[in-house]
Amino acid sequence: MNYWLFKSEPDAYSLDDLKNDKGRRTHWDGVRNYQARNFMRNMAKGDLGFFYHSNCEEPGIVGIIEVCREAYPDHTAFDPRDKHFDAKSNPEEPRWFMVDVRYKRRLKRPISLRELKEYADSRLTDFALVRRGNRLSVLPVTKRHWDFIVGLES
DNA sequence: GCCAACGTTGGC
DNA sequence: GCCAACGTTGGC
Q1: pLDDT tens digits, residue range A5-57?
Q2: Domains along chain A?
Q3: Residue A154: Cβ within 10 Å count
Q4: Three-class DSSP category at A20
Q5: Is the Cβ atom of A38 within 7 Å of strand C at any atom?
Q6: CA of residue A71 to C1' of nucleotide B11, angstroms
């Protein structure tokens, strides 16, 4: 099993939004970055992910979600009215993919980016999230890092 | 293939 | 709202 991190702006889509969605699940559409897309194509059913709130008052990890459907074409790329429309993608040769994720649980407390950065030079070296300039919306998390971060919870 | 211009992300 | 860090685009 592999571990991941999914970023979302809570104003646009928060952990509560996921929890309140039908079946507590959603499709993770709108990713338009090749590296992030490749990560999604590597995801397997049952993989776990952190739900990260970005671009907000206190950016940080707030919950845990699970991949419940593996990568399939992101149909929002085909819709000219969609914000993430991409004329270069089409159903015959889709360029962008998405996975479905399901709410698992909220962390006992949010683990802020500020707190995670305290470990950037020790327990969380090479964790992409705490490296400068990282803008990937989907990124892998090693088991070592995953376990350490979950351990910060309590 | 280089690189300047441009658009986006996201912390602060 | 600012701006640094990137990724992408397109002229040459």
Answers
A1: 999 999 999 999 999 999 999 999 999 999 999 999 999 999 999 999 999 99
A2: 3-152 (3.10.590.10)
A3: 7
A4: helix
A5: no
A6: 30
Query: How far, in Å, is the CA of A23 from the C1' of nucleotide C2?
Result: 40
Residue that the structure tokens 């995953």 belong to: A146
**Does the CB of A142 fall within 7 Å of any strand C atom?**
no
pTM above 0.85, yes or no: yes
- Extract the tokens encoding A138: 């989907």
Check if residue A85 sits with its Cβ under 7 angstroms from strand C: no
The answer to whether the beta carbon of residue A35 comes closer than 7 angstroms to any atom of strand C is yes
Q: Which residues contact A65 (CB under 8 A, 6 or more apart)?
A: A6, A18, A48, A49, A50, A51, A101, A102, A103, A104
Q: pLDDT digit string (tens) for A57-86?
A: 999 999 999 999 999 999 999 888 888 888
Query: Bridge-partner residues for A48, per DSSP?
Result: A3, A66
